[in-house]
Design brief:
By secondary structure, the protein is an alpha+beta fold. 30% of the residues lie in helices and 24% in strands. The protein has helices at residues 71-81, 102-119, 137-156; strands spanning 9-11, 18-24, 41-49, 55-62, 85-95, 123-124. It has a six-stranded mixed sheet. Strand 3 and strand 4 (55-62) form a beta hairpin. Helix 2 crosses helix 3 (137-156). It is globular and about 40 Å long.
């Protein structure tokens, strides 16, 4: 997005509504006006443990809010309160049309939390396992396809948060 490989990056796949952003913490303020970052989504805070520099990840979710904010506001809340570990970048998974509802967000957060734990690439620093939500078989199938596309894009960005 800014012409540098270590700066902000936006990725998607043709004919997929998903959008993935890689945002270094130092670029967080410059993303305030990005429309898709005001939508509901799942995010990953990636950094290193303050104690031993072990790679860590936090998997979270944000819903669109009445004030027109979503993932962007949630990232800023984490930035101002981050005490448990130092995160240096965020990966945000959202859609181009803000079509993820509360149930879908809960399902995605839970699945990515589980996938990150299974991969053993990072220490997952969430305090609790996110609830899975209640999705139909059909919706689960759609969301699993969404997850596969997201995993592909995230691995291209150099962040394999799950086993591929």
């Amino acid at each position: 997005m800014d012409g540098t490989p270590d700066g902000k990056i936006k990725c998607t796949i043709g004919n997929w509504i998903g959008v993935v952003y890689k945002i270094p913490i130092k670029e967080l303020d410059s993303c305030r006006e990005r429309e898709e970052l005001k939508y509901s989504g799942v995010y990953f805070l990636i950094g290193a443990s303050d104690k031993d520099s072990e790679p860590v990840i936090y998997v979270g979710q944000a819903r669109s809010r009445k004030n027109g904010e979503g993932t962007n506001q949630r990232l800023n809340e984490h930035h101002s309160k981050s005490k448990d570990f130092f995160w240096s970048e965020a990966i945000v998974l959202t859609t181009s049309n803000n079509s993820l509802g509360a149930t879908e967000i809960s399902y995605l957060e839970n699945r990515f939390f589980s996938l990150a734990n299974e991969a053993h690439r990072y220490k997952v620093v969430n305090n609790n396992e996110p609830p899975k939500g209640n999705v139909t078989e059909e919706k689960e199938s759609e969301l699993e396809e969404f997850i596969e596309n997201a995993r592909l894009v995230m691995s291209v960005l150099g962040r394999r948060v799950s086993c591929l």
